[in-house]
Each structure stands twice: as structure tokens, then as C-alpha cells.
Amino acid sequence: MSVPGSFAVLRVLWLLSVFGTVLPLDGGMLFPQESSFREVKELNGLWDFRADGSPNRNEGFEKAWHKRRLTESGPVIEMPVPASYNDITQDPTLRDFIGWVWYDREVAVPARWISNEGTRVVLRVGSAHYYSIVWVNGEKVTEHEGGHLPFEAEISSLIRKEPTKPCRITIAVNNTLTLETLPPGTIQYMNDSSRYPDGFFVQNIHFDFFNYAGIHRSVLLYTTPKVYVDDISVETNFMDNTGLIRYKVSVQGGFSNTLNITLMDKDGHFVASSNGSSGGLRVVDVKLWWPYLMHENPGYLYSMKVRQHAHRHVGDEYTLPVGIRTINVTNTQFLINNKPFYFHGVNKHEDSDIRGRGFDWPLIVKDFNLMKWLGVNSFRTSHYPYAEEILQMCDCHGIVVIDECPGVGIKDIRSFRNASLSHHLVVMDELVRRDKNHPSVVMWSVANEPASEMPPDFEHTKALDQTRPVTYVTITEADMDKGGPYVDVVCVNSYFAWYFDQGRLDIVPLHLENWYRKYQRPIIQSEYGADAVPGLHMDPPMMFTEEYQNALLQSYHDVFDQKRNQYFIGELIWNFADFMTAQGIYRVVGNKKGIFTRQRQPKAAAFLLRKRYWRLANETGRLLPD
Ligand code: BDP
């Protein structure tokens, strides 16, 4: 969000890098999957819940709430998982709560998981915001910092200790943001006792979305055999009509005698096979993975079955969907399978009524249907990693993804120190580890609009450079002027005729010209837009009306169309749908820059964009004539 008076040119700069080579394996984060050797048990539904409203928010730890059922240590309410807890009740203190909240429930673990010593049982949380501690039957099994990404713990030996008892899972989650968290924030105590009650504090943030909290994605128990496939990495290429998959598999828990890799096509027919923990698969008459609207058969996925046979142990099997495609960037183009790709897409949020940021299949499927209706071929996961199921949908439908980490609102100079850098690196590592094999993911976004106006600090760019194999770098405005040495693609966010020169649509072309001339790299207009209150009309257009939103988009589109054949490689509207923000004088119950309402009903701009995107698809994509 912009504050009037800040300097337009410095608003931007979140910079991207395109995939490099296969990651070194270092503990996997494969999506849990059922197979003949693995089982999955979802723990979604109603959990017991209590927010720790004590002044120091520490009562739960002082009284060891994890040692017993929460119902035994005080009052609880029902809380759905997955969901943000903020909008579930009528209580404004829970909506705006900062600090620890506690969840627990009991689970009946299948007897065979307990009796069979060869079964490994893992507890996995798809994501919880922001800091989580997990106990099983009162014993701590893991803690994790950061929302939006999964974490897990093996609990096999714990559940075998008291095999006849139900297993009690307790999760404490704290949404406090500090200078070192991602996104950062600060807690400010108001010490003036004449104006504020004792202990009064606020959570300051510098990003424009509600800081939803709670357990946002599924909690699962899943099993693997004792010796198990822990991680798989693939990298794909092709020459003429032969595809190549380079793979690497890591097995944990013991010695694996043999690893068989078998590749099947979409119809289940055998394509290629190999043995060993690393190697290559040649795919004759390859069917490439293509984006939606670029090919008549987008999102083609092979299935790579990894089968391990361990000495004196049950084997394991994991099947990874693999799309064969290449990504390259030239000085002026973004190439997918050596063909120029033009991003016509959206920025999104994981956000909806009641659930907040909680995972919700109906919403996800509705959003995909709307995106396809619009003619969208890509989106950015603004401003944090989205659920894995969403990326799986993108793989299948051929929707291209710019995968963003939660590096948003990095504005305070104290958030540029080593502690923040280390955490940022860990988060990037977790993100890449989780998402590296999705063909839909073509770029990593390191940060959204960090304070690039601050003096260059080469120490942190150096450290980022050392992470392998993906080179992801934030650079400053000053670096940019020297030519942006680390960057493949520049993404610019701008709000001309909105935050600056309000109402002056006539100046948009000139401002855009100036910007684009400056950056000698392929450029994506990664945000542009205007708030529109649905149903508000005015002609000639005025700000906040549907007419103004349309007119503003149109004035940008005119410039995009002039630049499209030069270095301009894409446009992503801000935003796909209206979304909730913190309360403040710049927002009337949330950000209204959606082209759909928060309930996914179209504003006039949705029709304008639909017309444009389908025209673009016909001009820039590879649609076959009907
Ligand atoms: C951009 C931010 C985005 C905001 C948007 C806005 O990246 O998160 O929601 O401004 O103000 O600068 O609508």
C-alpha cells in the first residue's frame, strides 16, 4: 500500500530470477500421497481452541496447557481447521488478537500403524501463521517459524509409548511479527498512561493485507515405510522431439538396495525407465508441458514412479507428476520451450469471507474457473507461497506461476540485518524445496517492494548469491542503475493516476515511458490497478467508480500494446479479487482493486480484461484455429 508523498519510482523493485539447476537434496518436503505403501489421514474439522489473553500472553506456557486436554485447563471454543480464526466469531478481540492461540484434538491412530514397527508416522501441518509449536501427548515434537509453508515431525515412537490411548495433538500458534520475521512488523507499546490502558500495544505492519492467523492448511498424519523416498528433484530439457528428465532421488531411514524409476504418459503407458538414485530418462516423441492458451493440449504431465526396494524392509513408492519444459530469458523475451511467452495474468491473495486465508477447495476451483474464463495464463502468488494443491492445479491446467516468498513490507532498515537475512534464506530454501518440481512455477519472487531507496548493502546480495542452485537476489535501486547485474526479469508495480497524480489518466503513458526506458531488461508490469467500489458509477469517470477502474486499465493497456513487441513481456492486474486489509483511512473494509468482488462477482473491469486477454491469447499465444 502506498502512502501519499512517497516517491513513485522507489515503490517498486521486487526482482526475480529464473530457475537454474537441480537443487542439492537436503531433506525433502514431498507432498503426502497415498500409495500401496503409504496412507494419509486428514485431521481437518473442529479442534478445541483458546486464545491466551493473559497480559504477557504466556499463561499457556506457565500452566503447561499442552500437558492435558485444553478443556481441562479452561474454557475452549470450536475452531475449524483449516481456517483463519479471526473472522469465525463475533468477538473483535479475537479478530484483532496478537499472541499465542492454542489448538488441540485427539486422534484415533489406526492400530496397524502402531503395531507395525516398520511404519513411520509423520504429523504434517500444511501451514500455520506465524510461529508454531507442536506437542503430541504432551511432548514437544517440533516448532516452526513462518507461515505459508509446511512443516512436519515424525511421531512413530511417541504414539507407540501408549498404544491404547488416543493421540492428543496440541498446536500453539503465535502471529506476532517482528523486525526479523517475514513479513516483518513491530510491536509498539503505548506507554502514555493518560491515553492508553496499562500494557496497551499495537502490531505495526507495512503490508496491505489482513494479518490472518491460525492453522491455514490441512493437518495430516501420513505414513511411509521405515526406509522411504524422502525427496525427488527433476530438471527437464528437450531437443527436437526427444525430452530429457534428469532426476535425483534421496532415500532415508536405511539402505536402499535398488531404486527403479518408471515414466508413464498421461494414459498410463510405459515411456522410459532407469535405475539408481540419479540419472536421466529419455522421452521419445515428447509431449511438452505448455501453458494454457499457448497450445491445444496445455499442462501435459507424465508420471514418474519411484520405487525403492530396501534390504529386509518393505519397499516404498512415490509418484511425481512431471511436466517437460524449458525456461529461458533473453534480453527482450521470456521463452517457454523456446517460444516467446507473454504473461497476461493476475495477482491474487489467499483470501475470502469467513475463512480468511484458510484453505478452501470450492474457492480454489471457482478461482480457476474464473481465471480460465478471463483468459488468464499466469499469476503471481502475491505476497506469500500458496497452498501446494493450487500449484498442482496450475501444473494440470497450464497456468504459469511466479512463486513469491513472504518478503513483503520490508521497509525498516533494521530488517536488513543478518538475522533477517538468515531467516529470509531459510524461507527461500523451504519454498524452493517445496515447489522446485512444479512445471508451472517459472520464477521465484524474492520480495515485494522492499525499501530499495536505501543505500546499497552489497553484503546481503553476496550472501544470497552463495545459495545454490537458484540465484535469487534482491538488488537496490542503485544497483539497478548500474544495469541490474543479477536480474533476469524486472517486475514493476506502479499506480499512476491513483496514488500519484490522482485522477489524471492523461499522464499515465508518459510516466510508463520513463520507467520502461530506465530498465534494460525484460519487464513485467507486475501490478497496476485502481480501487472500484462495486456498483459505484460516474461518467466522466471519477476515482473509486467502476468506470474509472476501466479507464485506468485502458490507459495502461494502450502503452503495453506499444511495447509488447520490444522488451515488455507481461501484465498482471492488481488484483484478481477484493481482499481484506487492516483497518485504516485508505481502505473501506478492505482493498477494492479487485476486478471481482471478494465474493467473486465481476465488476465492469472483469469484462474489459476478458476481452483483452482473449485477444492477447490469439495474438501472442499459439492457439490453433477452431
Ligand atoms: C502495492 C502492493 C500491494 C498493495 C497495492 C495497493 O504491492 O500489496 O495492495 O500496492 O496499494 O504497492 O493496492
UniProtKB/TrEMBL annotation:
Where it sits in the cell: the answer is: Lysosome
Summarizing activity control, the record says: Inhibited by L-aspartic acid.
Indicate the enzyme's highest-level EC class. hydrolase
Q: Which reaction does it catalyse?
A: a beta-D-glucuronoside + H2O = D-glucuronate + an alcohol
Q: Name one GO cellular component term.
A: extracellular space
One GO term (biological process): glucuronoside catabolic process
Domain Glycosyl hydrolases family 2 sugar binding: from-to ranges: 41-225
> Which Pfam families does the entry link to?
Glyco_hydro_2 (PF00703), Glyco_hydro_2_C (PF02836), Glyco_hydro_2_N (PF02837)
Listed PROSITE patterns: GLYCOSYL_HYDROL_F2_1, GLYCOSYL_HYDROL_F2_2
List, for all copies, the residue spans of the domain called Glycoside hydrolase family 2 catalytic.
327-617
Among SUPFAM superfamilies, the record links this protein to: (Trans)glycosidases, beta-Galactosidase/glucuronidase domain, Galactose-binding domain-like
Q: What is its EC number?
A: 3.2.1.31
Q: What is its biological role?
A: Plays an important role in the degradation of dermatan and keratan sulfates.
Show the NCBIfam families listed in the entry. PRK10150.1 (NF007538)
Subunit architecture: Homotetramer.
The name of this protein is Beta-glucuronidase
